[in-house]
Amino acid sequence: MVRSSNGGAISRIAKRSLSANRSRNIIIVSAIVLTTLLITTIFTTVLSMNQSMQLVQMKTAGSDFHGSFKYLNPEELQKLESHPSIKDYGKSVLVGEAVNDELKDYRIEIDYSDMSTIEHSFIHFIAGGLPAAENEIVMNTWSLDLLGVPHKIGATVDLDVDIDGKILSKPFVLSGYYEADKHIAMAGMAFVSEPFVQKYISHIDPEESKQTGSYINTTRLDVMFSNSIGIEKKIQKVLSDTGLDVSYGVNWAYSSVGLFSDPINLLPYGLLVLIIMLSGYLLIYNIFHISVVRDIKFYGLLKTMGTTPRQLKKIISIQANLLYAVGMPIGLALGYGMGCWLTPMLMSFSTENSEISYSFSPLIFVGAALFSYITVRIAASRPGRTAARISPVEAVKFAGVNGGKGRKIRKSLHGAKLHRMAFANLFRQKKKLVLMLASLSLSIILFSVIYTVISSFSVNKYLNAFISGDYVVKANNGAIENIRRDEPQADVGVSEELCQAISAIDGVTSLDKVYYSGDTLPIDERLRKVLEPIAANENPEEPVTTSILKSGAVSIQLHGIDRGWYDVIQKSDIVSGSFDQEKFETGNYVLITETTLREIEDITYYEPGDQIKLGSLGKSYEVMAVLKSDALYAAGTQFFNVAGFKVFLPANEMRQHAEDAIILSATVHIDPEKEAQVGNALSSLTNSNQNLTLKSREDYKEEMKGFIRIFQTVGYGLSFIIAFIGILNYINTILTGVISRRNEFAILESVGMTRKQLKKMLIYEGLYSILFTCLIVGTVGIYITYQIARGISENMAFTVFHMNPIPILSVFPLLIGISLIVTLAAYKSLTKATIVERLREVE
Question: Against a cut of 0.90, is the pTM above it?
């Protein structure tokens, strides 16, 4: 048997058939563009957010090296740097620490580092470069500002350097300077030259400095492998090969990278992709299906000429591929642009320092193109099978509706009623009706969910979480980081003198202070009973609870609160017990919060009535009540200790027994009529202290409004595009439905139906489809909205869920308007041809 090569002919038929349906092509290409755009946007946003989070983590870790070998002597360094697994490396020698009085609140480490270390540590010189001479140094701009040194190459920098316990006071010459954030790693770094190392520290034995714990003149070798998979195993392999036993570190930024650290984080984005693919599928499939039905006689004629079912499928497949080739690049370009636009908005939700990094990974474009292509191919495959299965005889008789087999003859005593005919017509093509209703309903339900979640945001709840008065003066993030690391300084908080000055401002009615002190609680039998079962079931690679048990103590935070904070405590904040203000004021009672244990539900070690001994205060207290872990959030440090908890007691008690307590914050209540002058006075008092932050209630309100605007932009933008796809589907269904029934309508008119009756029947059909959509959305849709929106709201901070029917009710008039406009436009195009012309049409 000789096989003929007719691929060219099939391709020409597909292309010419495609060019004969330009209006259809525009709608399909638009659907492909929208589908690709949305999927690309999600891929771009997810990968860019992950890359940005990874960059922040790396900057916090200090570099993008995979790992490091620490405290090396020259022989160990030589063995390690020559290992074949290490593709790149950088060397740093610890020299000492700057101890000038101007720098007492910050740790400035002084190192000798090579250029590779500098490049991998996100240090970009504003001017100059690494030091070469013995008296040259590189510093960051904020440390120069603290020292009063101008940002100028050649400027003199007088430093007191602590080298292994001895102070070297020396004038340096600035050889370069760079910008840095004082609150992240590598911020407090200065770099000296190799001649300086040779002159001042080369005589120090690295092994002896390791024994004393100073580590001066030891070398850190930072390394890069071929990839970041299994970093620790690669480091251990290097040590095994070299026979060395030295300390090492793994860059934790590679093992805790944001979105990909937990597959659950990707679930919402995966659901979004599925919703978009479903919406795109409904539209593209519907258009191809209607197109095949419309052209079914054409495919039947092709079959009579010998075209095989496989070739008919290929014709539709070629058309789908060509339309995809047109729409895909447009969707990818627009989607990438939209993803880059949305990334900064979404990253602004992070409470950590963030830096935007836009991903240009091939995964974005390959993944989006693949998912979009899968959507198009699935959508086009079933219409292709429909065209392939039908016989030539059936195709000639096909009128676009089901008939014959199983068809019921309807009888009526009242004659044919237009509204009954319209109702029956809807169910003649049940599949088309289901697809249209599903597409419309999906877009309305999505909009309803987003609107309900956004309307559940509570500005008051947000404000109460951060501020209880009109203004708050508090320790800034840098001071909080010192507190988090248990390195509180005496002057990082709000001073008593400043509090007195604030109280003296005309218009200030009261001032509520919060005192803070860190403490540890020995793990006794009570705590051990709670922690040991958790430690037994935790991940061996992350033995957090096990480590806490080995340490023998848990960290707790002591907060002394003024009486003005008592009214902030709500009944909903109390888990067990009750709060009696007068008894609490006696100083014999404390309030404690539940314990935060990572992914485990919050629990408590103590119950109301139990005694708790606070070692740093030298006194035992009775637990009055147990609060939720986030209760009195505005009064606290706003961070949590794993396995620890917060203790609240009267401010007077803290002042009396905690000598190292600092004033964490001072909440100011004012006379509303004097708000402007109080605000100016507070600014003048706090502007000179870089460790303090002043914020007003209005500042927090604007922050919350900004968050809501971002949600509105992203949420409503997504729902608008999904709704646009649904409306396109509806419009296409109505228009092509009317066009495919031209012959049927001509027959009805020929037996007596007037054009007015025909128009009324079409209007009824459109209104019935809207009515069914309303019924679906008003029943199943409300239930889905309630379940999803409530689930999202309950897992988000600062929301108070309440169901809102406004979006559903507001959409119905719009749908009715669209139905009337589309139906009348379809009717108008129909009546341009006479009855005779329509009856003579082949299609």
Answer: no
